Amino acid sequence: MPRHDVLTTLRQMRDYTREAVAMAAGRSRSDLDTDRLLNLALTHLLELIGEAASRVPEDERGGYPQVPWHRLVGLRNRLIHGYDQINLDIVWRIVSDDLPDLATALESILPAEP
After folding, report:
1. Rounded Cα–Cα distance for residues 36 and 14 (Å)
2. For a pLDDT cut of 70, what percent of the chain falls above it?
3. Are the C-beta atoms of 110 and 14 separated by less than 8 Å?
4. Which has more pLDDT, 44 or 2?
5. In the chain, where are the structural domains located?
6. 55: buried, middle or exposed (CB in 10 Å: 19+, 13-18, 0-12)?
7. pLDDT value at position 111?
8. For residues 54 and 36, is the Cβ–Cβ distance under 8 A?
9. Average pLDDT value for residue range 50-59
10. SS3 labels along 54-100
11. Which residue, among 98, 44, 43, 33, has the nearest Cα to 71 in the 3D structure?
12. What are the residues whose beta carbons fall under 8 Å from the beta carbon of 60, sequence distance 6 or more?
């Protein structure tokens, strides 16, 4: 994958991560049980983050150890293939606890935009 494409993919990951964090802001775990659109949106954004992570070549991933590549791809696979067994407690923990750190890591990787 050309360097430009890797940067595009990293930007997509950052944007999806920011979007999920913003969507969860001011919400609580119980909202995932009562707000179906929030539930679907956050789950889908996690899938997109994992899909984008899977597109970054292994040799490029090594340059960014602060990104949990295998966990992101594994999460995507779990959500896609185990869609009928999604644990919303885990989804909420990832969105509220892990994604802010992921956003920070991705922002540190990407060059400043003009």
Report:
1. 24
2. 96
3. yes
4. 44
5. 3-108
6. middle
7. 85
8. no
9. 95
10. HHCCHHHHCCCCCCCHHHHHHHHHHHHHCHHHCCHHHHHHHHHHHHH
11. 98
12. 1, 6
CA atoms within 13 A on the CB side of 97: 7
Over residues 75-91, the mean pLDDT reads: 94
- The span from the CA of 44 to the CA of 104, in Å, is 21
- Which residues make Cβ contacts (< 8 Å) with residue 101, sequence separation at least 6? none
Cα–Cα distance for residue pair 55/48, rounded to 1 Å: 11
Q: Residue count of the chain, please give it.
A: 114
List residues with catalytic annotation.
76, 81
- Nearest alpha-carbon partner for 51 in 88, 13, 6: 13
Categorize the per-residue pLDDT at 2 as very low, low, confident or very high, splitting at 50, 70 and 90.
low
